[in-house]
Structures
1.
Amino acid sequence: MELLAPAKVNLSLKILGKRSDGFHELETLMVPISLADKLVLAKTEGHGVGFSCDDSSLPCDSRNLAVRAAELFARHTGLDIGVRIFLEKRIPHGAGLGGGSSDAAAVLLGLNQLFEAALDISTLAELAAQIGSDVPFFVHRSAAICRGRGEVVAPMVLPEKLPLLLIKPSFGVATPWAYQRWSTSLEIPGVPYGPQKFGWGELFNDLERPVFEKHFVLADLKRWLLEQNEVAGALMSGSGSTSFALLKGGDLAEALEHKVRQRFGDDFWTAYVVTTLF
Ligand code: C5P
């Protein structure tokens, strides 16, 4: 069985406050995008979960969310599953694109089908929430407003397919660090943090404040992107380090990509994507 695990971007992310369990209360608009990892799931004669990946920098044990998802599925259903999982990694990690969370959700959805367990979406979403805050969003496979710590998912229809250029520097950002620094971080004068309004909603991210303070190049990138005539809006996704430019048209992606490389160097990763339902 072959599955696609799409990445996401956060079009908006508001932090409403810190909770007593250490997490932060959120209201975030997340959308799946056309960049995706590929997973191959195959039943085996033996028992247990075998996992391999084409990216040797990723752990293959239960530190990997995809492995954790398979183990949780087996525990919850009580099925003595034998399965081999192969992951073709296309989504960069430490990037704010939800790659690991999406892989985990795809494993839950895939095993449910492969072993005919007939778990409904709300049960799968409950299992997903035990793996990570973003995983339930990926079980729903739709644009959604996510609340709570991210696990309360209200699917919605985004009226437009948005053309985006993803831009990521060579470093990543650790999500716990970004949240931890949020309450004490300050805005950098001259950097635009305010909401950018569009017909479908607004671009806004509360985590830009702590991340820009540490990684000034991301603040500089956003300010610069907003000055380019191909760009209708610009924002960091999740806790970074990926930012995206909302393009005035998909045909402008290549020109902007070229300018990004000239201004910020070849070590910046870029990818043209569109928002999608999958
Ligand atoms: O849920 P997940 O494991 O993806 O979260 C990673 C870390 O990000 C958490 O341990 C926490 O430090 C932080 N976080 C948070 N509030 C959220 C989501 C994540 O503080 N709503």
2.
Amino acid sequence: MKVSALSDLLGMPPLVRYLTDVEALLEDAIGVENQWISIPARRVVGGGGKRLRPIITIAAAAAGGAAVSEPVLRGAAALELVHVGSLVHDDIMDAAKSRRGIDTVNAREGINHAVLIGDFLLARAGELASTISAEVSHALATAIVQLCDGQSLETGSLFNIDRSRTAYEKSIEGKTASLLRASCRIGALASDLPPSVVDAMAAYGAAFGMAFQIIDDILDLISTSDAMGKPVGNDLREGVYTLPVLLALEGDRGSSLRKVLARGIDQSSIDMVVETALTTGAIAEALSVATGYNQKAMAALDNLEDVPVVAGLRRLPDAYCRWAISEKAEARYYRLIGIGTDHGPR
Ligand code: GRG
């Protein structure tokens, strides 16, 4: 999704300028003399991320009618640093070789350096947050706690074919939704918006974050490795059974799927899971769960003043999901997942 399109969608003409300021803050945060840190940190922070968390931090501030101030931009940069730090640690856990088509730190510089880069990025985020307020620092630290919580729940349930849908949702609430929630909360807190607006924004970010992760999990099954920057079925290979797989396990062909998964994961079992999830409607159902979370996100904004950015934030969750599917899902699956051809690449 291009920033210019996002700025139109959100009704925020100066978004590009704000993001340029965030980039400068990120560069400041990672530009240290020690090249063991600065080189890999620049590669991962500058590695082509969408900057979704900074964008929603900024939009949350603007949605409450506040000017987008310097503290809001520092908060936005802090959130991106936590996001990238968590990805560096995630890549260590997965022994991933590349992300967004770029070498991971564990692959190029080694695991020990990667641990330190992740820690460094988190610490830099903490420093930025501390320049805003104690409340913002607290919100950021809480989000990091929740990220660890969600990720450890996932790690503890690898290859568990009895993983429940509730357990899945609790895990993604921590590992993904908590950071989108914190982005919204911190945007509002850094602008001194009233508690009712802070809470409404946080509820919006949390619900959108759930949909965001569910879409990512769907795409892991029906995208292409080129579009995702990692092999299709990567979650399955790692033993992460996500919502579409859990729904397929609950369906008519659940018992044969169980047997296939119990035998171990190879390319033919991945193909079988994808085919089953598509033809039994499990993927379509997962998509509709994501849509339900998007509706919850929109409803969270009901009591906010109807300024253009609030209307833009209401449009964002559905627009993001449509964009992600149209950019990344294989078009031949559209009919099976119950979406029209208007999702096709533009
Ligand atoms: C050290 C903070 C910290 C956490 C440790 C490893 C871990 C616990 C958490 C990682 C959780 C994780 C990988 C969640 C996935 C979130 C997700 C969907 C990331 C992709 O977000 P995008 O699409 O990424 O916004 P880009 O590439 O655009 O930046």
